[in-house]
Structure formats: structure tokens, C-alpha cells
Amino acid sequence: MRRLTIGFLAAAGIMPIGCSRPGTPAPATNDVIMVCGQRIHVGAPVVLWTDPGGYDAYRAECRFIPDRALPVNPASDNPAALRYDTYRRNLPPEVKEHVRLHGWDLPLLQQYVDLFVIHYDACGTSENCFQVLHDNRGLSVHFLLDLDGTIYQTLDLKERAWHAGTANDRSIGIEIANKGAYRDLSVLDDWYARDASGRLYVTIPGLYKNGGAVRTPNAGIRTPDFIARPARNEPVCGTIQGGKLCQYDFTEEQYHSLVKLTIALCRVFPKITCDYPRDEDGTLRLTALSPEESRDYRGLIGHWHITPQKVDPGPAFDWDRLVREAQP
């Protein structure tokens, strides 16, 4: 009878206390992100900072040189060499005091997060991005999205990551693995090639251009023998911030995971509207927003919309596809 009862409860999704043996590892799910300590399903592969092989932005020491920490600036308000803030700035005093005493809960955080900032990392892979961002620059971002569609979460979304300047207080950020946009695409000749059928693929050279070395046989990419191919087989050119740039597209796997993550974030944070900044004629805004426009905007946003000196996620990023496929 006891077995029948437990079987019935399990089928109903209810496990009675005592069914799991104390001290035994609990099975992990690989499609959840963490928001104020709550697990939120995404439907795409996710590696948390607590998982083996994850990227932990909470650590003060460097990831790839474990005994090295960032130098501490005595004049800074960051004496522990952290790469993030627990507080989002410009909070009302009573809210800041509540967070100090009790931490963030999801209903409170939902009131203050209304932007999802999309970057390309210009590093080529998430492994290299975390080394450059965390170890070299002392910065952080909530998510990294690798070539094979793996999402790495480095911080709980309650934290204020350092990735988009003045938008950090209101935003969640993601760095998508892509070498970036340039006036002359020949600078990427050692990163992209064509196979015998003429299809583009990412080559990942033995040494990364910005100083990091490949640390694992597959450059940190979790899918065995994965071949990364741009979603479009030709480079995409366009004008951003008044300058013409060309870029190779992101992979199908990246778009698929980004759509799933965007759906989840727009549901968890209702103030993030599933749309991008538009000009008066309804087309994609190709320049930075003014301070007044930025203050009033809510939704998906590129780094170039925040900072006039930035051009990511570049002309190849398919905003229309993301918005169309991520609609409720």
C-alpha cells in the first residue's frame, strides 16, 4: 500500500518527505536560470555558475589564473575586488534599506528591471569572453551565450552586473559569442572559412586575438565536435552610429536559445516589452537613444542604443526574428 501511495503521489508531481535519502545528491536540471534564488525554466541549455564548468562572477580571484586577484583600489567603494553590486543604484532609501536587511525578492526586483541588453562579446567564444571580462577587465554580465547555444549564467539576476554603464541599474545583460562587426571583414579571415560546399563555418584559431589562449580542446564549447555556422551564409552589412560595418551572423543555435531566454525574461519581468527601439517610421533605431529617450524606454535593447561609442550586437543581429519568435 505504501508503495502504491508513493507511486500515486509521484505521478501527481508530489514527493512526500523522506522519499529522498538525506545526503544523496539531488538531480540537476539543465534548463533553469536563477532569479532571486528561484529556479525558472527556460527550455534551452543552461549552465549555472554553481555547475561544473560554469563561470562564476561572484569570485574575487581570477578564473583562469586562480591565485591572482584584481588589484584593489583603496579609493574605490569596491574593496573586495568584486565585479558586481548587490544594490541597484538610485533606489529610494526605504527600498535600499529593505534590500540591505532582507535581500531582493522577485516582486520587488520586478519593479526595477525593465531592460534586456544584448551585446556581442568580440571574443569569439564564451570561454574567452569570461577571461577578458572577469579576469582582465574586472567586469561582469549576467549571461554568456556560446556558439553552440549554451547559456552560461554567471550571477543571480538580482545582482547589478557591470556591462552597460548607466543601464546597469535597470537591466539584465547577455554577451553573445561573435567576433564582431568591422569596416574590413578581412580582419576575421582566421576566424571564418568555407567548406568544400561553400558553407561558412567558424574556425576558432589556436590563439585568440585579444590575448587569451584556448584552455580546453574545444575552446570551452560543451557540444562535442560542434561546428559553428553563421545562420546566414554571407556577411551582413549595415550602418550603425553613422558608420558602415559588416559582420558574420550568429548561429542558429544561438538564436534558438536567445529566443527561449527572451521569452522567459519577458514573463518574469513584465516591464521588459518584447520589442526593440524604433524610429518614428517603425524601423530599427540605428543610433543611440538620447538620455530622455533612454529614461522612457522599456524592452530589448542593444549596447549601441545605450552608448554612442558602441556598435554591438552589430548589423547581422536579426532583431525582427528575435521579436517575432519570442512573442507570447
Total of helices: 8
Cα-atom Rg, whole angstroms?
21 Å
Q: How much of the sequence is in beta strands? A: 15-25%
User: Which strand order do you get reading across the main beta sheet?
Assistant: 3-7-6-9-5-15
Q: The CATH topology, please? A: Lysozyme-like
Query: What's the CATH architecture?
Result: 3-Layer(aba) Sandwich
Globally, the shape reads globular
Q: CATH H level: which superfamily?
A: Peptidoglycan recognition protein-like
- CATH class designation: Alpha Beta
Q: What characterizes the major β-sheet?
A: 6 strands, mixed
Low-confidence stretches: 1-18, 207-214
Helix content: 10-25%
How would you classify the helix and strand content by structural class?
alpha/beta
Describe this structure in words.
The chain is an alpha/beta fold and 328 residues long. It is built from eight helices and 15 strands. The chain has helices at 2-11, 93-102, 106-110, 126-136, 252-268, 291-296, 303-306, 319-325; strands spanning 32-35, 38-41, 46-48, 84-85, 115-120, 143-145, 151-153, 160-161, 171-176, 181-182, 192-194, 200-202, 236-240, 243-247, 299-302. The protein starts with a helix and ends with a helix. Mean pLDDT is 88; it is low at 1-18 and 207-214.
Primary descriptors:
328 residues, alpha/beta, Lysozyme-like, six-stranded mixed sheet, three-stranded antiparallel sheet, 21% helix, disordered N terminus
